[in-house]
Structure prediction request, 228 residues.
Amino acid sequence: MYILVIEDNPDLVANLYDYLEPKGYILDAAYDARTGMQFIQDKVYDAVVLDLTLPGMDGLELCRRIRDAGVTVPILMLTARDTLDAKLEGFAAGTDDYLVKPFALQELEARLRALVRRARGEQEREALQVADLVFDPDTLRVERAGQTITLPPIPLKLLTLLIRQSPRVVPKRELERRIWGNERPDSDALRTHLHVLRSAIDKPFKTQLLRTVHGMGYQLAAPDEVQD
Prediction:
């Protein structure tokens, strides 16, 4: 799942990254409302974790603006206010669920999964597909030509990013930022993980889907979507 966290507490954001990323989630973090709104306008997320208290604009106002913009992404609001009136105010603003601080990370994950399932419909699962490569972002199951493929966490995150953007060429710096944030990895780290991904999804098959576009980035696309 692709999650946006809008929270001004860096320790809490770090805890969310540490807990969710090893499970295959991809996170973006915004530390104020304006940045969070920009992310929502630029990208498509499976869910948003939104803090009620933010600098410059509170979570309720941001939630209203998100809904006024026609964005229906599920929103889980974090708050220290454990009162019925506060929760009703949040629901009126457009939030889908509430989680009161302090909370267990396991509960946050369970609520996120429930919100995403509800948004997709209980019987409908969103499968992402490029040619005969199929990825289920909810179960993290990867298949190609009917064969199940097992990937380590970082190659799995790269697949999630590339298949969601397909057939767009994704720049190297964008992939590095989404995987490692502002902590730039060693120069060969991205190439190494992409090699693992390519070996799993391409090497055993006749048709190659993952391309290196020299000087630009990387592309996951069916052959008929590739422009020479």
Q: What stands out?
A: Residues 31 and 168 are 28 Å apart (CA to CA). Helices lie at 10-20, 33-42, 59-68, 84-93, 105-120, 153-165, 172-180, 189-201. The chain has a mean pLDDT of 87. The chain is about 40% helix and 20% strand.
